[in-house]
Write a structure and sequence with these properties.
The protein has one helix at about 75-80; strands at about 20-25, 30-35, 40-45, 50-55, 60-70, 85-95, 100-105, 120-130, 135-140, 150-155, 160-165, 170, 190-195, 210-215, 215, 220-230, 235-240, 245-250, 255-265, 270-280, 290-295, 345, 375-380, 390, 395. The chain is mostly beta strands and about 400 residues long. Among the domains are: about 20-110 and about 350-395, no CATH class; about 160-295, Jelly Rolls (Sandwich), CATH 2.60.120. The strands form 5 sheets. Strands 10, 12, 13, 16, 19 and 21 form a 6-stranded antiparallel beta sheet that branches. Strands 11, 14, 15, 17, 18 and 20 form a 6-stranded antiparallel beta sheet that branches. Strands 1, 2, 7, 24 and 25 form a 5-stranded antiparallel beta sheet that branches. The chain starts with 20 loop residues before the first strand and ends with a strand. Mean pLDDT is about 80; it is low at about 325-385.
Amino acid sequence: MAPAGGPHYAEPLTVRSPFAQGFTIRAQGQSRTFDADGFRDVRFVGQYPVGTIRYRDNDCPLEVTAEAFSPFIPLNVDDSTLPATTLSFTLRNRTSSAVAAEVVGSSANPVCLTTRDQQPTELTATPFRKGRTTGVEFGARETEDADHDIVFEDWESGDGWTVDGDAFRIVTQAEIPGYMRRFGDLLLSGTHFVTSHRIGDPDPDGHQGTLTSREFTIERRYVAVSVGGGNRSGEVGVEVVVDGLVVAGATGHDSEPMIATMLDLGAHLGRTARIRIVDHAQGPWAHVNCDAIVFTDRPDIVVEDWASGTYDAWTVTGDAFGAGRSPRPRPRPTSAARSARSTISTSSAPTSSPRTTSVPPAIPMPTRESSPAIRSPSNAATSPPGSAAARTPSAPV
């Protein structure tokens, strides 16, 4: 027989939520959260299928009992698997005077949790009513692309750069020698790129130098740049310099293909910066390849769409994946991938309709058996933009 409790009996798992939600009680000008921070005495009793939690504090005139359960009907699979939780709160007045109380449930918008910061997104929270049910529908939509991408350099001319040393040259697709394609296609987005590998030179990696751009104001959060060549940070690569300090950078991966990288400059918006492409290295992989440089607020990168039908830029081991398929013309990649416009939404569970009732005169000291109480099914809903809040009636207890 396995030991009772399992490995997490003595060391319970840490409770975490991907978005903020919870309940608060408001009474006599004070607000308390339904947790150990709001109440000193919190007790839980689990009797399947209902979990009962009692909240009590000597400084609070009310004692709160919460009952939580998910729908469960024996032999009824459909109704017993609804993705919903019902919460019922009972408030007991521990004093001899009437107390006006309000229970508020709140939830942050749970839509697009991992992508809302990666592209312009507007979060929404829309109240709805269907019959006797009131709730909040959370959603998100892509905002208009007012902040278009800025192509800072595509190497068609290469103007505006300060050159130090003799390492760098702007080359075309046709000039790339066969040995630089040994890793596959260089993933060039246009027709030109810059490299410190001196093609045709007896010692192609024996030259050093620096390219420094003109000054620019940081107006977009990201610098999108594709970099190949040596993986030697501080010696070869692309750097963003603010006030003489390197605040972001990228290197190659000891391979020639130029891999897309997003340099996050969110902490430096509005400041003046320069881009510096450096080659101070000697020996193996002492060069850097750099494709177009784009300023964007969209960090979306298409790493592979398999449109070529080949495994270019991939290292293949074994024969499990075959030889791909016959290549077809590959569309020219854009500076930053754009997702299709869409509206995504999910509905919260039903909530109580907000309303207010008057507070009567003081009432006699209640007993446990006869104590007046409010029982109000409630579910989370928030308040900031894109969120919503659900309130139980404010009533005497």
